[in-house]
Design a protein that fits this description.
526 residues, alpha+beta, 4-stranded antiparallel sheet, disordered N terminus
Amino acid sequence: MNSSRRDPGTQVSTPRATRRELMGLAALGILAAGTRPARANPEGQVVWASHISLAPTWFDPAETPGLITPFMLYYALHDGLVKPMPGKTHEPCLAQSYTPSADGLSHEFVLREGVTFHNGEPVTVEDVKFSFERYRGNAAAFFHSKVASVETPDAKRIIFHLHKPWLDFLTYFSGVTGAAWIVPKKYVESVGEDGFKKAPIGAGPYKFVSFNPGVELVMEAFDGYWRKTPTVKRLVWKVIPDETTRLAALKRGEVDIAYSIRGELAEELRRTPGLTLKPVVINSPFWIYFPDQWDPKSPFHDARVRQAVTVALDRDGINQALTLGFSKINYSIVPYNYEYYWQPPKIAYDPDRARALLAEAGFKGGLDAGEYYCDSSYSNLAEAVVNNLVDVGIRVKLRPIERAAFNQGYADKKYRDLVQGGSGAFGNAATRMESFIAKGGTYVYGNYPELDALFAQQVDETDRPKREAILHKMQQIIHEQTIYAPIWQLGFLNGQGPRIGESAIGLMPGHPYSAPYEEVRLKSGA
């Protein structure tokens, strides 16, 4: 007689499935949903030397500034419904699938099963909707204006309905903004905005442990991360703004990875046994911006003065001196590898031409051009540029500002004279036009009606070749009018110590930092 009861001391054998049966179960998704491979416990610690002081605003995807810096932390602490990943620009992550409608008017995501935040609460479609609606960072008004409504028809599906078809919906959602990076609605509402920054909770591979401003940030592995349990138990970012001190800490083994080592120090790093130079050409053009070019009283209102600035720059010399030739001179504010990129002609280094242009504009003896604002972590680039400018008679005072404050001041339109800017944000040529050229952009101090009209045309254009032609024309006008003086597309030089098996630097082309962090690993026995 059969019985449902079993003697606890008796081993019960079960029939082994055939290979064909296993393949059939896998095709139905049963194995993936019902079993998970055995995982080793995370062990050890990896320490980064950060070249900038970390800011709590970068713990919160709602405040994404349209620059790449906060993604250094997002990829550890948070996860996106869809996000850039190695080999893919938009990979479903917290979403198990993504389906755009045939008419381009709706975008449907199906939430992945069994995903939780660090506090054990499940990730829900309400969290997704909340994160989108709460987003207030770069391009928030522009992005929200494109979405007519957000529908959650059941517990697993969320549908974004647009007013009209828009080719860049996924580009803005997954990386240009932080709107797809999901935070827990109940937790945020319970602790408040400031409370969330003090003790952030996400759904990423690492959990927040502690933050000592100006000193260090600590996170630990989240064993419940859906994609892959990290192999490293503890991540530490030590704030070391001084480049010489970062390299010394790497050589002594106090840190395992040091960001942004340049010039002679990079050469020293490359010569040091046990250390590895890790250069990456990132999606980050640098430029000089003329925020007063719309002011008739400013010398930079005269295009000849702006042209004098751009031909005064010894781009190749600065590249060799600071980034060992790894930066790419692309003469644009748009990364050369972005969709819709237009290649401008070469801007020759010509100090004599710069002096002649200044003389034509009425500044034969040069001019006192005010202040040159920059992110302090790129002061050495600014110093090289300022030397070039002074050499042709453009005298400026260098004003380095710590990164978070610099970015805020840039976005708040507080600067005058000259601004050394840059952006490594995800996107394409159109997203750069929105943030840095078109009226209303986060970093736009003034606008040109012709460019605004072209920008509006390309937003509504769904034929890719026609859209490309419009965006090429915009970039050509920017070049011809010298709205910016481009410097380079940065070759970001980093150092790696002997304990590291995989730093995850360079796994995502164009991304400056380690990512994704669940791929970081130590060497065996390290």
